[in-house]
Amino acid sequence: MVRIGILGGAGYTAGELLRILVNHPDADIVFVNSSSNAGNMITDVHEGLLGETNMCFTDSMPFEAVDVVFFCFGHGKSKQFIEENKIPDNVKIIDLAQDFRLKAPGNDYIYGLPEINRAEIAKAEHVANPGCFATCIQLGLLPAAKMGLITEDVTVNAITGSTGAGQKPVGTTHFSWRSGNMSIYKAFEHQHVPEIKQGLRQLQGHLDAEIDFIPYRGDFARGIFATLVVKTDVPVDDIVAGYKEFYADEPFTHYSDKPINLKQVVNTNKALVHCEKHGNKLLVTSCIDNLLKGASGQAVQNMNIMFGLDEKSGLRLKGSGF
């Protein structure tokens, strides 16, 4: 049984972690920390867990009682927390923020994308969970990188649901603004681009192209749908064969012969990828649930790998189907 602590327990990613872990056969949730909610029932915040747990939030952090701790902080707070608090060396860390995703001197965090780093994750003490856009876009492009196809700038458009902005309300997450609306933000400057490049470079060996990424806000709650355009003269049959081989043994990422849609992945830990060719343009579509394969589901997937469990344990989640 894996003993678990969760920090930053009031946000969306923590809520999704709890939804998975309360039914995980090998998980024992020891504490859920939230200073602002200490003493309150978890179901007062995460109402969908009513009937699933009677736990309360706590302001204590008994690290000596756990095997792994999940950081569900806002970006930038994980580094600060580690500087101000001592976590025992025998406690593994899975950080869902962006603080440790990029390789740097002194950073021992393994980038937690199992499709390319499974063996390293299995031996890791510290894992940096990928970003949601970064996961979706990389899974669409990694097989192309392995085939050496990314030699020119890649055009990326991706739309995300309102939960991607976190639980704290802001002007662009209010229902009255978001409903029936669409907008772009952080065009060409999104914070996930460096980790996307890092992953592509890892497989291709080099990357002399830009990732021209335009993110969109969608008028739905959860999910990411991305379109990626790669210029190449390689025949589509060869490309499809490469994609199918790359994902043949993956438990959650699947190549689809048919065009994909967002509802196929919402409320699941799945990623779907599809390719088609238009002249010398390879169009790749990919989609995930931003809160699951893009965050908490992938974090549990990483936990399973780190502790030698069945990788799919606790993650046999099913979408709506319609």
UniProtKB/TrEMBL annotation:
Keyword Transmembrane: no
InterPro entries listed in its UniProt record: AGPR, AGPR_AS, AGPR_dimerisation_dom, AGPR_type-1, NAD(P)-bd_dom_sf, Semialdehyde_DH_NAD-bd
Localization: Cytoplasm
GO molecular function: N-acetyl-gamma-glutamyl-phosphate reductase activity; transaminase activity
EC class name: oxidoreductase
Keyword list, A-Z: Amino-acid biosynthesis, Aminotransferase, Arginine biosynthesis, Cytoplasm, NADP, Oxidoreductase, Transferase
UniProt pathway annotation: Amino-acid biosynthesis; L-arginine biosynthesis; N(2)-acetyl-L-ornithine from L-glutamate: step 3/4
Pfam family, one: Semialdhyde_dh
EC number: 1.2.1.38
Family affiliation: Belongs to the NAGSA dehydrogenase family. Type 1 subfamily.
Function field: Catalyzes the NADPH-dependent reduction of N-acetyl-5-glutamyl phosphate to yield N-acetyl-L-glutamate 5-semialdehyde.
Protein name: N-acetyl-gamma-glutamyl-phosphate reductase
